[in-house]
Design brief:
Layout lengths: L2 E7 L8 H6 L4 H14 E2 L2 E2 L3 E7 L5 E5 L11 H14 L11 E4 L3 H8 L5 E6 L13 E7 L15 E4 L4 H20 L1
Parallel strand pairs: 1-4, 1-8, 7-8, 7-9
Antiparallel strand pairs: 2-3, 4-5, 5-6
Helix pairs in contact: 2-3, 2-5
């Protein structure tokens, strides 16, 4: 089965608190993160086990939260449940004894370091562009890295490498994630026939 690594690059400049979640003050970067996590991991009554998700907060940390769908617990599909998991992870950053939730790992790597580590192997690298040219190469790679900046200004030079391919430049990255996942599901379904 293919592995899809999704790197979400967040423009958030502050850590969200549980109090803000409780009273419904969720700002746009965090709302976008929740939509992307839901699109990437959540399917009917289960999680996609072959998707690895990394959320990078370069402006806060650098800090990266790695969500492992094989071991994560107590994460529902609602915005509050997803963001509560991120709050717990962000609160543990920098503390000596980390009691992070199961299935969540914290690192101090930037989005560029995360992407370069994930693309060391023979991988297909997908980044947003004006044309979508990923449909054919997606069938020939077992390891895929999808870079999802949540802001237009977050697409650095290193994300447009010559060996990369582009997915459709949706303004909402959750739609782009769903498009890639749909294509991968179709490939798996056709091979299973």
């Amino acid at each position: 089965m293919r592995t899809l690594n999704i790197v979400i690059d967040s423009p958030a400049e502050f850590v969200i608190s549980k109090t803000e979640l409780d009273i419904g003050l969720v700002t746009n970067p965090y709302r976008d993160i929740a939509h992307c996590v839901r699109a990437a991991l959540c399917i009917s009554h289960d999680l996609r086990r072959w998707v690895n998700l990394v959320i990078c907060f370069d402006k806060i940390g650098p800090m990266s939260l790695h969500l492992d769908p094989k071991s994560i617990r107590y994460m529902g599909t609602d915005e509050r449940s997803i963001l509560l998991l991120l709050v717990k992870g962000q609160n543990q950053m920098g503390k000596r004894k980390q009691h992070t939730p199961i299935g969540l790992r914290i690192s101090s790597s930037t989005s560029e370091e995360t992407v370069s580590k994930l693309t060391e192997k023979d991988t297909l690298f997908l980044s947003p562009g004006t044309t979508a040219n990923w449909q054919n190469p997606v069938t020939s790679f077992e390891e895929i890295v999808m870079y999802c900046p949540l802001s237009e200004g977050l697409l650095p030079r290193w994300a447009t490498s010559s060996n990369g391919h582009y997915y459709k430049d949706y303004h909402r990255r959750d739609l782009a994630i769903l498009e890639i996942l749909h294509q991968l599901d179709m490939i798996s379904w056709e091979k299973g026939k």
